[in-house]
Amino acid sequence: MPARRTHLALCGFLLCCVISSGSTAGSEGAAEDAPHVFVALQTRNSAHLLPNFFGYLENLDYPKSRISVWVRTDHNLDDTPAVLEAWCTAVRDVYLSVDCQHSKKVVFDVGYPPPDTDEQYRHTASVQQTALEAGRRSGAQYFFVLNTDNFITNPQTLRLLIAEDRVVTAPMLNSEGNAAFSNFWMDQDSLGYYKRHEDYLPILQRNFTGCFRAPVLLPPLLIHLSSPQSQSLIYHPPLEGFNGPTDDIVHFAYSAKMGVITHPHSLYLSLSTLPCRSGHVHL
Ligand SMILES: *[C@@H]1O[C@H](CO)[C@@H](O)[C@H](O)[C@H]1NC(C)=O
């Protein structure tokens, strides 16, 4: 009998929870409680991708009144600035804040094919750093950095990443173009470049599922800005002692690795193989 009563009590409690969360979902009260997320995007020559990208962003199951949007673009050969401006104007009052800027300053030669030089990588890394600093200044609890070809098809992704409760977390993406591409590396060579690891394919093919520690993560990734450990993360300039390539991804990974030394067991990049299929990634 006692066991049966306990069981009934538990049912009643769960029912209450369901009713109360159902009645507040989507209300102002629930939205105010959601952590402030700073969404950062650096984009170029992506007019063909932006409509899909923004569609998926808007589709996230997360209160827009708790999302700040920050977008920077430069060195375009297509209509990216116009597409961006149209979207940013349309959603200006929908999100907590919308800060989109098109810089016409020429930092490197534009041409086709686009140059692939240290100067360009340095520029990209410094814009990423500007984004991270803007996120920190905004007081947001989370920094969610994306690339335009990250199509987040699972609307729960942001909520699931926040629930992982780690300093840096990425949802694993599958690429539509190349089945072996994704947004994580499991190993690096001595200079910090990509190196294949035996766990890479089983993780990519979801034979191993769960959350993994990864030395290098590419966007989309979520940084928990309110965690003190995230303070040591940096895109540019690379931390002292770094002697690898000029690349924001590798600089960032190095700062996370150094952070592990400073804060053992607390700062590491983690990869979550969420049960979603997000795609279209290029490394
Ligand atoms: C993953 O599992 C599938 C189905 O069992 C198998 O065919 C495939 O070879 C596995 N992949 C890896 C990398 O182990």
TrEMBL record:
<dbReference type="GO" id="GO:0050211">
    <property type="term" value="F:procollagen galactosyltransferase activity"/>
</dbReference>
<keyword id="KW-0328">Glycosyltransferase</keyword>
<keyword id="KW-0808">Transferase</keyword>
<comment type="similarity">
    <text>Belongs to the glycosyltransferase 25 family.</text>
</comment>
<dbReference type="InterPro" id="IPR029044">
    <property type="entry name" value="Nucleotide-diphossugar_trans"/>
</dbReference>
<dbReference type="InterPro" id="IPR050757">
    <property type="entry name" value="Collagen_mod_GT25"/>
</dbReference>
<feature type="signal peptide">
    <location>
        <begin position="1"/>
        <end position="25"/>
    </location>
</feature>
<protein>
    <submittedName>
        <fullName>Procollagen galactosyltransferase 1</fullName>
    </submittedName>
</protein>
<keyword id="KW-0732">Signal</keyword>
